[in-house]
């Protein structure tokens, strides 16, 4: 157990160092004063609207996880799911050296209801897998607008293969979830689209009104690569900086938008402390 904790601490330490190193490199190329100058001209209305769409994506994510839990007859009610979800966000964002958000969910649900830790973990894993598949499908979909027509057939083929392969994995190793696969996948697509809209609104708040397709592909790509850093910080900014070398867009605006997205994420993650400070009162759905 101690070795596991040490390994987790070291992994989180590495992620934090990666985030710091990437941000250092980004701000050597783009002085923070340029970002601050852009923020001073921000349209607050668009930022508030972006926050609403981000919140919607998180609430829908809570509902998706609820479906996975219910597949194992873990009938946690929606309000309890929301509290636990936002508490998990708080752990993931503000306590990188401690217990992770998903690990906390497994611990608390196992302790409170005696549910199988293995089954809870499988629910969380498939929930994440559904989200990852949706991101990859959307990257390919939006990329189709960036390539010539002859590439579209290949892109469609990759999308079909990706969905079919993931469904095969789910059916073979996690058969409990095969009947909800396409329902949760559809929800995952909507969740990611809400986050894309959130990011587009952030860019509009900074006065940007074009090149949304490449920004969207880069943004979605950073969601996948965020696994190697702390909460995606640094990776997203670095990816936008590098993409600006190959596509015609202002790196200062994209990095500023990326940091604003992180601020919005941190804002809602902080709400989890409310459920940390008061005792969780998890309840089951009434039958």
Automatic annotation (TrEMBL):
Keyword Cell membrane: yes
InterPro entries: L-PG_synthase/AglD
Record carries keyword Transmembrane: yes
Any Gene Ontology CC annotation: plasma membrane
Transmembrane portions of the chain: 9-27, 39-61, 82-109, 129-147, 152-174, 180-202, 214-235, 255-277
Highest taxon listed in the record's lineage: Bacteria
Subcellular location: Cell membrane
UniProt entry keywords in alphabetical sequence: Cell membrane, Membrane, Transmembrane, Transmembrane helix
Main location: membrane
Listed Pfam families: LPG_synthase_TM
Membrane topology: Multi-pass membrane protein
Protein name, UniProt field: Lysylphosphatidylglycerol synthase TM region
């Amino acid at each position: 157990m101690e070795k596991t904790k040490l390994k987790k601490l070291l992994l989180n330490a590495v992620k934090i160092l990666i985030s710091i190193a990437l941000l250092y490199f980004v701000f050597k190329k783009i002085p923070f004063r340029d970002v601050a100058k852009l923020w001073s001209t921000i349209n607050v209305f668009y930022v508030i609207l972006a926050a609403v769409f981000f919140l919607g994506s998180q609430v829908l994510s809570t509902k998706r996880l609820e479906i996975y839990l219910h597949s194992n007859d873990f009938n946690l009610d929606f309000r309890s799911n929301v509290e636990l979800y936002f508490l998990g966000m708080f752990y993931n964002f503000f306590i990188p050296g401690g217990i992770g958000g998903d690990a906390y969910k497994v611990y608390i649900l196992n302790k409170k209801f005696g549910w199988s830790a293995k089954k809870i973990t499988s629910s969380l894993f498939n929930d994440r897998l559904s989200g990852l598949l949706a991101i990859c499908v959307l990257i390919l979909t939006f990329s189709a607008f960036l390539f010539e027509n002859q590439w579209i057939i290949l892109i469609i083929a990759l999308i079909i293969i990706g969905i079919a392969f993931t469904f095969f994995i789910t059916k073979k190793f996690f058969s409990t979830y095969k009947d909800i696969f396409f329902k949760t996948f559809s929800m995952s697509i909507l969740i990611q689209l809400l986050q894309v809209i959130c990011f587009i609104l952030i860019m509009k708040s900074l006065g940007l009104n074009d090149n949304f397709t490449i920004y969207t592909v880069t943004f979605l790509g950073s969601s996948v690569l965020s696994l190697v850093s702390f909460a995606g910080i640094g990776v997203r900014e670095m990816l936008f900086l590098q993409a600006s070398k190959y596509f015609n867009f202002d790196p200062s605006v994209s990095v500023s938008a990326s940091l604003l997205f992180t601020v919005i994420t941190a804002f809602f993650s902080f709400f989890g402390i409310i459920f940390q400070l008061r005792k969780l009162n998890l309840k089951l759905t009434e039958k």
